[in-house]
Structures are given as structure tokens and as C-alpha cells.
């Protein structure tokens, strides 16, 4: 997955960019409640490659679906 593909797929929820020290990062565009964070949602997700970041963002999307069944976030 390329950086452009990540932005296309997850860009409404995440600000996706190259990290300053290498790798890639995604910063959630909205805040999360403490409960959502305790249940596994993150404000920042990192990966050493776009593919790794994509897998982590996919996992976040699955976790969002478990916390908010029936709600489409993207």
C-alpha cells in the first residue's frame, strides 16, 4: 500500500504523513474519549512502512466497528 492509497482509504479519519525520524504516522483527526482509548483505539498510529501502517489502521477500523456497531466512520 502506498502513502497515497493510505490517504485515500483512511484520510477522512487520519492525517497520514512520513515521520520525522523515518517511518510513517497517522494522527487521528478527532479526539477520543478515555473509554474509547481504554478499549484499544489510538490517537496516533505508527509503522515503519506504508504497508505496516496500513495494517495498523485496518486494525483500528475493526476496533472502531466493535465499539460502534452499525456506525460507518469513513
Blueprint (SSEs and pairs):
Layout: H1 3-10, E1 14-18, E2 24-28, H2 34-38, E3 44-47, H3 50-67
Antiparallel strand pairs: 1-2, 2-3
Task: Tell me the number of strands.
Answer: 3
Gross morphology: globular
Radius of gyration: 12 Å
The count of helical stretches stands at 3
On the 0-100 scale, what is the average pLDDT? Answer: 90
Strand content: 15-25%
Largest sheet: 3 strands, antiparallel
Spans where pLDDT lies below 50 across 5 or more residues: none
* Structural class computed from helices and strand pairing: alpha+beta
How many angstroms separate the termini? 18 Å
Sketch the topology as an H/E string, one letter per element.
Answer: HEEHEH
The count of domains is 1
* Helicity, as a percent range: 40-55%
Sequence of strands across the biggest β-sheet: 1-2-3
Q: What are the key terms here?
A:
three-stranded antiparallel β-sheet; 19% strand; alpha+beta; 3 helices; 74 residues
Overview of this protein structure:
Strand 1 (14-18) and strand 2 (24-28) form a beta hairpin. A three-stranded antiparallel sheet has the order 1-2-3, covered by helices on one side. Helices cover 42% and strands 19% of the residues. It is an alpha+beta fold and 74 residues long.
Summed up, what is this model?
The protein is an alpha+beta fold. Helices cover 42% and strands 19% of the residues. The mean pLDDT is 90.
Amino acid at each position: 500500500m502506498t502513502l497515497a492509497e493510505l490517504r485515500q482509504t483512511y484520510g477522512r479519519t487520519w492525517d497520514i504523513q512520513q515521520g520525522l525520524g523515518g517511518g510513517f504516522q497517522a494522527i487521528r483527526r478527532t479526539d477520543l474519549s478515555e473509554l474509547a482509548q481504554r478499549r484499544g483505539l489510538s490517537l496516533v498510529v505508527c509503522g515503519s512502512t506504508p504497508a505496516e501502517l496500513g495494517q495498523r489502521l485496518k486494525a483500528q477500523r475493526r476496533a472502531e466497528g466493535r465499539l460502534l456497531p452499525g456506525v460507518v466512520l469513513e
